[in-house]
Amino acid sequence: MKIWKFNDEDGDIDLTPMIDVVFLLVVFFMTVANMISAEKHPITVPVALNSTIPDDYGERTTVTVTADGSLYAGVYPVDLEELAEILIAERERNPAARVFIRADSSTEHQYVNDVMQICAASGLSNVIFAAYQSDK
């Protein structure tokens, strides 16, 4: 059996494993930074006279409705069928799942109504809407 002995006479250290680890860490942090920087689709949030801030916002599935009626579940574009599948899966994962609807102030109410119906059909009744509080 050959026993390895550190030979410090030549003074060379193999840096290849350390470079591999550093490279993997760089790739990891670049990937995580990209995931964190993915932001929600921008909308114009409506102003509501009687809006309140919920005491417990908690973890909610965010659904965005843009001015042209496009839907986003989180940051991903979806259609109504995909949204229903996502909400049903969320309810099965967490029976107390909740929904946060971000609707653009200029979107037609029909698009928001469609999302509300999908939420109800999926068994999710705890829904809140994004709105600014009015000064009046």
Automatic annotation (TrEMBL):
Pfam family, one: ExbD
GO cellular component, one term: plasma membrane
Entry's Gene Ontology molecular function annotations: transmembrane transporter activity
Subcellular location field: Cell membrane
Residue spans crossing the bilayer: 15-36
One of the protein's GO biological processes: protein transport
Bilayer topology annotation: Single-pass membrane protein; Single-pass type II membrane protein
Keyword annotations from UniProtKB, A to Z: Cell membrane, Membrane, Protein transport, Transmembrane, Transmembrane helix, Transport
InterPro entries: ExbD
Keyword Transferase: no
PANTHER family, per database record: BIOPOLYMER TRANSPORT PROTEIN EXBD-RELATED, EXBD MEMBRANE COMPONENT OF PMF-DRIVEN MACROMOLECULE IMPORT SYSTEM
Family: Belongs to the ExbD/TolR family.
Protein name listed in UniProt: Biopolymer transporter ExbD
Organism: Rubellicoccus peritrichatus
